[in-house]
Amino acid sequence: MGSGGKKRWKFSFHRTPSSNTSKPETEQAPKEFICSISGSMMADPVIVTSGQTFEGNCVHVCKNLGFTPLLSDGTRPDLTSLIPNIAFKSTILNWCDTHRVDRPVPIAVNVAEKLVMDLMEVQKERVVIKDKEFVKSVTELTRSHFYSSSEESVITTPLPFSTRPACYSSSSSISSSEIVSSDESCSEEEEIVMKLKSTQVFEQEEGVVSLRKLTRMREELRVLLCTPRLLSALRSLMVSRYVVVQVNSVAALVNISLEKSNKVKIVRCGIVPVLIDVLKGGFNEAQEHAAGALFSLALDDDNKMAIGVLGALEPLVHMLRCDSERARNDSALALYHLSLVNSNRVKLVKLGAVSVLLSLVKVGELASRALLILCNLAVCDEGRSVMLDENAVECFFGMLKDGDLKSASSVRENCVAALYSLSLGSLRFKSLAKDAGAREVLVEVAEKGSDRAKEKAKKMLLMLKERTGREGDEEIDWESVMNSGVVSRIHQYRLGVGDCANSTGF
Question: Which of 40, 45, 73, 253 could share a disulfide with 85, CB 3.0–4.6 Å?
Fold first, then answer.
């Protein structure tokens, strides 16, 4: 009986793949590669102000037609500016090559126009149908209920999802999130938005102070108050010339961003460019909150690339040297999480972040956080090259020599991790490490360091031994080599002159 069961199971298992006629999962493009406007894989991806990525010509057509598409999450992107997303394009092309899928071709302007116009008609019809369904379901409501959520709601039971409107424009009625929320939270949002949009400064101050207090004391309101219209009203006040308005509006945003479900919504509402403006020229306390907001938003993986593309890296690096300790710490934490993305690593290197971070490490200021960022930068080729030029090897080995290995173990562990990344694929590391007295330091780390540090130290010791050669081998005098004319022959090989089949490369 048991044997027969096994045979039947094997028979069923082997027939399953052959009977499956669907397209293999490996050939299906990831959903993030698909433009939500064209519905096809992007060939010329561009990132817009609010952080989303679309096909380039589709965005141009939308701007020309004055149309802002409605996204699946019920929000509308900010198409004010667009930047070519080169890193994302490279990711798409590499995926196509790896999975043997034809590379996407850029959509022609006339084709994009037809797609956008079709989408305009579809979304227009969808809103009309949803409005009719909604009105039919709540016939007891008058039209005034749709425009004034400060009135007492007569809806006592949430409507079924099939009869709720998908979304409403900024000039239209309440959204589905307002329908399912309590009467109290709806009235609070309406009251706050009215004050935020007021032309009177004292009412704006009351609005932002109230919003900051509510989102600090009542965590359950953070999601309910994170609506497009409130974020839009808040965004305009974050660059106010009045200190109370600006400081409290940015602080309230930090509170709202603490909820994981709000982070992507906030970036897509175009908040990041405003935070950057605050970092560059806002009041001191507002700058502290802006750095904290970017740190909070950078925790979400979907925001990391967008924040970097929108230009937040340079002001964050600048904030590492500001007078506020809080702003320095939050800026460093934001840069650490943003540097987990390779495209941001390359940008940070080009912005001169390596020299700034190394200077902080040398003076002991923000050393632990600066080291975390440098560990990330050492992973990419550009960062590794600049760090070797900036004498990072000497700096890190110097830190390992000072003091007891048991003290500040996390800092010393990060030093070893950074050195290990620098040693990979680098012909210069051996000589720099030798000048810094690496062998003695690494032996001590391998004996007394943490488990993680021990492993990396042993690998570097082995690597240094292999590159040095066996005992008794002659060391290469690179100065004599430079003067012997060998360099000119190497140069000829690199230019393709002569037989370079046996060349090992550089």
Answer: 45
Checking if the pLDDT of 138 tops 60, the result is no
CB half-sphere exposure, 54, CA atoms < 13 A: 30
- Residue 124 in tokens: 């227009």
Domain that holds residue 442: 187-471
Of the candidates 130, 148, 176, which is a domain's last residue? 130
Is 42 within the bounds of a domain? yes
Q: In the listed set 87, 105, 130, which residue is the last one of a domain according to the structure?
A: 130
CA 208 to chain centre: 27
Judge contact between 239 and 278, C-beta under 8 A. Answer: yes
Where are the alpha helices (H) located in 351-494, listed in sequence order?
353-363, 367-377, 381-389, 392-401, 409-423, 429-435, 438-448, 451-468, 478-483, 486-494
* Backbone φ/ψ region at 449: left (φ over 0), alpha (ψ -120 to 50), beta: beta
Residue 478 has pLDDT above 60, yes or no: no
Q: What is the pLDDT of residues 141-151, one digit of tens each?
A: 333 333 333 33
How many folded domains does the chain comprise? 2
Convert the pLDDT of each residue in 195-209 to its tens digit: 999 999 999 999 999
- Six-digit token string for 291: 């750095």
Is residue 329 domain-resident?
yes
Per-chain mean pLDDT for the chain: 76
Query: Is the pTM above the cut of 0.85?
Result: no
- In angstroms, the CA 440 to CA 397 distance is 10
CATH number at residue 102: 3.30.40.10
278 belongs to a structural domain: yes
- Please tell me whether residues 73 and 213 are part of one structural domain: no
Tens of pLDDT along 323-382?
999 999 999 999 999 999 999 999 999 999 999 999 998 887 788 889 999 999 998 889
What is the rounded CA–CA span in Å between residue 290 and residue 277? 9
Indicate whether 87 and 198 sit together in one domain.
no
Phi, psi (deg, nearest 5) at residue 22: -75, 160
Same domain flag for 331 and 449: yes
Q: Is residue 159 part of a domain?
A: no
Residues 350 and 441 placed together within one structural domain of the fold: yes
What tokens does 380 get?
């990419």
Q: Provide long-range contacts, Cβ within 8 A and 24+ apart, for 236-240.
A: 237/196, 237/204, 237/208, 238/271, 238/274, 238/275, 238/277, 238/278, 238/286, 239/274, 239/277, 239/278, 239/282, 240/204
